[in-house]
Every structure is written in structure tokens, then in C-alpha cells.
Amino acid sequence: MTQLTRDEALAIARNALPMFGIGPGAAIDFVKQRENVVFRVTDGDASYAVRIHRLGHRTDDEVRTEGAFMAALHQLGVPVSDVVRTVSGGLFAEVSGSDGEAYQIDAQHWVDNSSPLGDAGDAWMGTDALTVGVFSRLGEICARFHSASRHIGKIPGYSRPAWDLDGLTGPGALWGDPRRLAGTAEDRRLIDTAEKRIRERLLSLGTAPEFFGVIHADFTPENVLAAGSDFVLIDFDDFGEGWWLFDLATILFWYHRHPHADDYRAALLDGYRKAAEIPQRALEELDTFVLARALTYLGWAANRPDDETSGFLRAEVLPVVVEMCRDYTGTLAKVHSKGQAVGDQQLLDRRAATIGPYSPLFYDRPLHLVSGEGAWVVDAEGSRYLDAYNNVPQVGHANPRVAEAVCAQMKTLNVHTRYLSAPIVDYAELLLRTFDAPLDRVYFTNSGSESNELALRIARHMTGCSGMIVTDHSYHGNTISLAALTTGLTVSEPLGDHVRTIHVPDLDGEGQAGRPGDMLQAALAAVDTAIASLQEAGHGVAALLIEPAFSTEGLPRVPEGYLEGLAERVRAAGGLVIADEVQTGLGRLGDEWWGHQATGIKPDVVTLGKPLGNGYPLGGVVTTEHVLESFSSTNMYFNTFAGTPAAAAAGHAVLNEIIDRGLVARAGELGRHVAARLGELVERHPRAAAAKGRGLFFGLALVDSAGGPDGDLAKRIVEALVGAGILISRIGPNENILKIRPPLVIEGDELDRVIDVLDAALLAEAGQPAARV
Ligand SMILES: Cc1ncc(COP(=O)(O)O)c(C=O)c1O
């Protein structure tokens, strides 16, 4: 807001008059001082509105754009006030104040015998007296303005802030962050959820010209003057690009509570349609725009705590807008008979009719997630869930640093890897620094499957053999060659002739306690048998492909020496050791960057995926210089989308985020805390048999009363946790191991909450815990 006193403003206005060719004897009357200062200047028969812009609010280009746009509208016959140029033809003048600052001043012809159609406050309180006929005319004038604006487009030198997604929602919104005005945590949560939902809706609507263009952006009853029988649109102080319907939403917002709100709305839309079309898809979002507009006012008030209008907004408008947020986010909450929200049921039906009913969905009642932040996600009904399951958003859902890095790169350039590009090399260097020698080369891919597929090719190339060893309950991806070695989920392809499976020993397994030596011997003997069988069949051994922590297998606690023994035998048979780190990599296991470092195996090839880009598709194969030289000198590896600058930006931002926030060490610390707490659960709950995992990858093995794996109990617990707002899942051949694997940014108290709720769910589902000793 301007700091000018009225006298200072008057002096500036007076000094500006000659620049507009207005005589020194003109009368100057003060009109208003809100954010800008406005005077009415009368010089003989002519009368002008002279405005001093608040200091530093607009750039010169922005002020110039405003004047030029209004002049263009005027020329096209749109009833807007007529811009007065300076004597030198400029669109504004610059005058120094007594503070030495340069003020921007512009002028328009005064609209004679006019007064504003109404007052926003009266509109809100329902005390004004507009007719439906006025709304119809307002609709029409708005449509005429939009048509002219479309015709004009962005005038040369256009420069204005935009009412786009960022301008409307989020912490950097043009008028401020509405969450800051919320008086309670609950109100803040509602506003936050509504903002995210608005963002999602507008993102899906998009900014095609039929929806989006240069709008007025402050189309209130105060900014339409009634002059005789004419309406004149004034105050373009906020104009810029935005959704066309935002203008209609602005006026509708002020009459939202009015006794005639529905009639006004119908009349406004009818009037608009007389002069321009409203696409059905945009109309569906009219309430989204009304709420978005409402939130802008709260943001405005939050930025001006001492302003009188802010007081009104806080007292009269905020409570209503909070209820609007509740209604808006709860629209889908009308529960369907099967427990699925109506909107979600429709989405499920459409999903089944397009991508088919077999594409898997979690939970009895599938979740329709619409937004997230940190370790939290929000569903379409506005319910929040603590995400203790997802390892792709490693540095948190909707991580702004990653999103902004990708966005900035996409706005700059995104080409494939056949051009020299610094981002991917920078990223490769940083990524490889997290590996130990001799792993110092990387291929980029788009997914875990592509990484493993490439690793298989490399292994075949390096060994001249095709034989593969995998575990008997594993998953490494969805290509043909990986389907042929999938043992951990349903595929119609039979296990390949060239594949042998081994069973991973688990010291926590049924009846295994106290026999680690025997177990190790038996497990390694099984590896010898697999190798011999591959050799006998003429396949030889190309590779062992395993996850260092055996997560699909249910995080078995393997006897000491097992991993080393495995690797040793496979190498002796001429095969490579491939560590699939799609799940266990990037700090997941705590203390070390990679699962193989944490578990002590030394792979020849490491495959990467899921968390690398925090959701942006990015995978990789890390290997040695020797392997890369051999493979790449005889195979041209090119992968269009892999290693683009945008992918590199995502990966780089993820690494920086992990490094800056110390997430690897933190995962180790938090992991030890959770392991201790899970251990307590095992002591107290007879049906909790073993705490598994490390870092931020945990399991809790559940058993029935006879000590056998209890997948049903695990399912009930998973569902109970979802009901309590916590997301986990289950793994293992019997699906009896609870899988807890949150984004690395989860907080200690949030993890405690997961364990507390788990504790209560175990009690509810599996009965009384043993007394503590
Ligand atoms: C261990 C492991 N490897 C590979 C993959 C395949 O990764 P993507 O789905 O990115 O192809 C997965 C996916 O779940 C996985 O868990």
C-alpha cells in the first residue's frame, strides 16, 4: 500500500498535470486512496480520473500494457474508460514525490454522470438492489469484453502477472495465501484441501484459448459504472491472463449469499451467452472458479491484517468461504451403497471401461487421491492419509523443489540424449558419487523394468550365457524377458527354461529359530544345484538377479554369509551379480545410499528406478567402466526419453533434497527407533511374530494362533489402518508381512503414530496382548 499522505499525493498529481496537457488551473478533487490514489481533475469542460500507482507494485511495462490494452478495447467499442495519453504520447507519466521516489501516474477521461453499480460489501450482505436484468446486461458486457480481448490477444510488449494456477492458488498466489487467514487448524486444513482440489481441477481444464485469455480479473459491481443507460467497465488494475469464467465467478462470488443468487447466476450466464459461448467443460468448473475467487480475497486480507476491508473479510466472508471449502471438497462424499463415493464409483466404471478391470487397485475401497504434501495424501473427499507405504515420492509428495526443477527445465528445453546436454552429465556425476568403486558408469532408463531388461542384455553379452537365477518369490519388471523370470506375481508366461529359482532362508521363518548354520548350508547348496542345472542344460550362468533386502520375498532375515556365498558361487560359475535396487535404493535402508552397500554385497550391475525422479519417470543401470566399454562398443544403446534434461532435473533435485536434508542418515536413525518399537509389538502381541527390515523399509510378520503365516489378519490390519487414515500394505509369499515404507521425509512423530495405530489395530483384530514383563 502506498505510504503517501494525501498532501504528498496531491502534489504529485498536480506536478503530473502538465504532462497530460492539463492546465495548471485545473481543480483537483480527492476520490479515493486504497492501494492506488485517485483524483478527479476538472479542467474547463473536461474531466479526468488521475491515478497514482502504489510504489513498486507494477513495472513500467505492466502499467504501459494496461493503458495499451484499454485503448485497444476502447477502439473496438468496448465500453471502458478512455485512456488519456501524455503530451509526448506515453501511456503514463513519471513524477518524483517528496520522498525522491518516482511514481507512475496515468489518466483516463472521467465517465460523466456515472456511479458504480453497487458495492461489494452490500452485495455480500444482500442489501443491494440489483435486478436480474442488470445481471443479464453484466453477462453480455463481460462476453463482449472477452470477445474483444480474444481479438486483441496479447498486445505487443505485453507484460502482466497471470491469474493462472500459481497466480490463483498456492503460497505464491497473486493476492496472498488464504491459509494464513484461517483462525483454526481445521479451517486451514479445509482451505488447503480446497486449494489443492481447485489446482487439480484447473490443471485438468487446461489453458486452451476457449477457456483462457486476457481477462479483467476484478469484475465486481464496484468496477462497472452505470452512466445513464450505459455500463462502463473501469479499473483494470488487476487485469491479466486467466480463465474467462473467472470474471463471471468474481461477480457471482459477491452475490453468493444473496437471496436472489440463483436468479442472478442464471441471468448472468444467459446474458453472457447472448454475446459469446461458454464451453460446457468450463461451465462444469464455475463453482471451482467462484471458490478460487473467494480464496483470493482471503489471501488479500491475510496480507493486510490492519486494513478495514480485511476486517470485513475476516469477520463476514471467511466463515462462509470455509463452509464453501467444506462443501466443495465434500461434493464427492455422498456415499454410495457399497461405501464408494458416487463420483469415485463413476470413475471406477470409466476406468474399467477404458484401462480395464484388472489393473490393480489397493484396498477394499479404492482410494481416489488428488493431492499430497510430504508424507501426506488427500483423497477426493478431502480426507487426509499419512502415507507410510509409498517409496516413489522419496522426498515427499508434490515436492516443490523437484516439481519446480522439472518445470523450469521443461520451460527451457527438453531434448533427447543425442545432443550434448549438461544437466544429464551433472546428474550422472552426482549420482555416481553415491556409489563405490568400481561402479562408475551409468545408463539411463525410464523405469525399473527397462533397467532390469538392460541388465539382462548386458549379462548375456558379458557372459555369452543365458541362464538366470532368481528367488522363488520375486518381481523385477514387466517385459517379456522379465515375465519369464517372475515368481512373485501372476503372469501367464511360464518360467523360462533358462531360469532357476532359489528359496531365500529366513531366520524368522516358521520353526527356523536356532539353526542359522544349517539353514545357510542348505540355502547355499540350493544355489549350487541351480548353477549345476543351468550348466547341464547348456544355458550356463548369465546372472543372479536379486534385491539386496529381498523385499518382495517379505524382507527375510538371512543368515550371515548368505549374500556373500550367493555372489561368490555365481561369480565362480562365470555369472554377473545384479542388484535390483528399484525398491531398496536411494537411502531407503538408511545410513548408506544403496541397499548393496547396506547389506554388504558387491554387485557388477545395479538397477535403479522408482524413487530416482520422485515420480518423474527415471531409472538407471550402474556398472563398471569395463562392462560399459564391452557392452556399448558393440550395442548402440539409445532410449529417447531416458536421460532427458527434464529427467536429469528431477533426479538432481531429488539427490540435492536428500543430501541437504540429510535423509540417508535420518532414515537410519528413524529406522532404529521404529525397529525398537516394532520389537515391542512383537513382545506384546502374540500374533506379531517378527519385526523385519531396516532404515525406512519395515515389515511385521503376522501369524495365526498356530504360528502359521496369517495373510487374512494382515489384510484386516491393512484395512483397519486405512480406516484410521494410514496407508501401508503387505508382502511376502503368504502376504502376511505388513509392509511399511514411507517417503523418507516422514517425521519421527508421524512414524510413532503409525506404530500406535498399528498397536491398537492388532489389539482390535487379534485380541489381547501379552502382559508386559
Ligand atoms: C524390485 C523391483 N524391480 C523392478 C520393478 C519394476 O519397476 P517398474 O514398475 O518401474 O518397471 C519393480 C516394481 O515394482 C520392483 O519392485
Summarize the SSE layout with pairings.
Elements: H1 6-16, E1 27-33, E2 37-43, E3 46-52, H2 60-75, E4 83-84, E5 93-96, E6 102-109, E7 114-116, H3 120-125, H4 132-152, H5 165-168, H6 185-205, E8 212-215, E9 224-227, E10 230-233, E11 240-243, H7 244-254, H8 261-275, H9 280-283, H10 286-303, H11 308-330, H12 342-354, E12 369-373, E13 376-379, E14 384-387, H13 400-412, H14 422-432, E15 439-445, H15 448-463, E16 468-471, H16 480-483, E17 499-502, H17 516-536, E18 543-546, H18 562-572, E19 576-580, H19 595-599, E20 605-608, E21 619-624, H20 625-632, H21 645-660, H22 663-684, E22 688-694, E23 697-702, H23 711-723, E24 726-727, E25 729-731, E26 737-740, H24 748-766
Parallel strand pairs: 14-24, 16-17, 16-18, 18-19, 19-20
Antiparallel strand pairs: 1-2, 2-3, 3-6, 4-6, 5-6, 7-9, 8-11, 9-10, 12-13, 13-14, 15-21, 20-21, 22-23, 23-26, 25-26
Helix pairs in contact: 4-8, 6-10, 6-11, 7-10, 10-11, 13-21, 14-21, 17-18, 22-24, 23-24
Keywords: Aminotransferase, Pyridoxal phosphate, Transferase
InterPro entries: Aminoglycoside_PTrfase, Aminotrans_3, Aminotrans_3_PPA_site, Kinase-like_dom_sf, PyrdxlP-dep_Trfase, PyrdxlP-dep_Trfase_major, PyrdxlP-dep_Trfase_small
Protein name: Aminotransferase class III-fold pyridoxal phosphate-dependent enzyme
